[in-house]
Design goal:
99 residues, Ubiquitin Conjugating Enzyme, three-stranded antiparallel β-sheet, 31% helix, elongated
């Protein structure tokens, strides 16, 4: 039996200097199915694009999630994986176009 965990990972763009509007620029959901042997066995991870990302960017994040899980076998890793993805979102965030 698997445990299922869903984590919303997003980056909020603050419209400085007045912070009058807060816009969610990019976001994903990281879905993890935790096997009974977790953390000694990697979870099945799925990165789902929620907002502001191309298919290629979501595929990049999926590869990063799988690699981070493999690197962290033997220890609880969901937070570590989510944080790595969040850092990527921050680094690749672009101010949303407002028309």
């Amino acid at each position: 039996m698997f445990s299922i965990c869903k984590i919303l990972v997003g980056y909020i763009y603050f419209d400085a200097p007045y912070l009058s509007s807060i816009l969610l620029s990019v976001a994903i959901t990281l879905e993890a199915q935790l096997p009974p042997a977790y953390p000694n066995e990697a979870p099945t991870l799925e990165v789902v694009g929620v907002k502001g990302l191309s298919t290629d960017q979501v595929a990049t994040l999926q590869g990063m999630a799988d690699a981070a899980a493999a690197e962290n076998l033997g220890m609880a890793m969901c937070y570590t994986v989510a944080e790595e993805l969040r850092e990527w979102l921050v680094a690749h965030n672009e101010k949303p176009q407002v028309f």
